[in-house]
Design a protein that fits this description.
single chain, about 260 residues, mainly beta, 13-stranded mixed beta sheet, two-stranded parallel ribbon, globular, binds 4-[(4-nitrophenyl)methyl]benzenesulfonamide, binds zinc ion
Length: about 260
């Protein structure tokens, strides 16, 4: 490809190419509602999180992560498209500089202002998260869209802690939080085989994307946008637009748990 195109493939935030050479199941994707296939054999997703497994909030320079103690099976998901139970490792968000974009996945080409990812790993088959990351069925990520609306009381406890992790590589203890308060009550989801959306971009994720968004208000989105990609002392760069561009669907079908 011409020099221009090659440069277009290198997004500043990811240094590595936007599509993995030979990648056949990259994420995120656009979910075309009418092309998704209802699968009556999909089970309901069962979620049981123990709020005391919450450890801390960490600004890792891409997003802010809320990390959990994944040394036991106290916070797990099971069912849905999953063969095994998967342990909660962390959750994080992706968002835009303005409300017109920010989510990683889109639905019928519509962006949401932000997207939550709850990251789980297959501790039944693999000894650690790092090993699971390298396996086709190693991870399960629940995606939840955020839309502008009413203030989300559960999210507010998280938002109140964000000023303490404004800079890259800062961490604050956060010892009781139940992430199920961030899930919509509607059980409907889409599911497809995909990848991590940040390096190492490994094709190890069973994506479970909730059909219904949760509502957050403008102040809560603005709180995300005052975080920084940069460390204390560096020239400030606001942490916004930390989402990967859409990737080709290729030979994949998105299944729905609903008709
Ligand atoms: N956005 S996402 O696809 O849900 C996503 C989920 C988890 C991670 C975290 C991560 C995944 C793997 C590694 N690694 O193998 O070095 C380091 C960090 C990165 C990205
Ligand atoms: Zn993510």
């Amino acid at each position: 490809c011409s020099r221009k195109n090659r440069n277009a493939a290198l997004h500043p935030l990811w240094q590595s190419p936007l599509t993995i050479p030979g990648g056949t199941r990259q994420s995120p994707i656009n979910i075309q509602w009418r092309d998704s296939v209802y699968d009556p054999f999909l089970k309901p997703l069962k979620i049981s999180y123990d709020p005391t497994t919450c450890l801390h909030i960490w600004n890792n320079g891409y997003s802010f992560l809320v990390e959990f103690d994944d040394s036991t099976d106290r916070s797990i998901i099971v069912g849905g498209p999953l063969e095994n139970q998967y342990r909660l490792k962390q959750f994080h968000f992706h968002w835009g500089a303005i409300n017109d974009w920010g989510s990683e996945h889109t639905v019928d080409s519509k962006f949401y202002p932000a997207e939550l990812h709850l990251v789980h790993w297959n501790a039944v088959e693999y000894p650690s998260f790092e090993e699971a990351v390298m396996e086709g069925n190693g991870l399960a990520v629940i995606g939840v869209f955020l839309k502008l609306g009413a203030r989300h009381e559960g999210l507010q406890t998280l938002v109140d802690a964000l000023p303490a992790v404004k800079h890259k590589d800062t961490v604050i203890e956060f010892d009781v939080f139940d992430p199920s308060c961030l899930l919509p009550s509607c059980p409907d989801y889409w599911t497809y085989a995909g990848s991590l959306t940040t390096p190492p971009l490994t094709e190890s994720v069973t994506w479970i994307i909730k059909k219904k968004p949760i509502e957050v208000d403008e102040d809560q989105l603005e709180a995300f946008r005052m975080l920084l990609f940069t460390s204390d002392g560096e020239e400030e760069k606001r942490m916004v637009d930390n989402f990967r561009p859409l990737q080709p669907l290729m030979d994949r079908t998105v299944r729905s748990s609903f008709q």
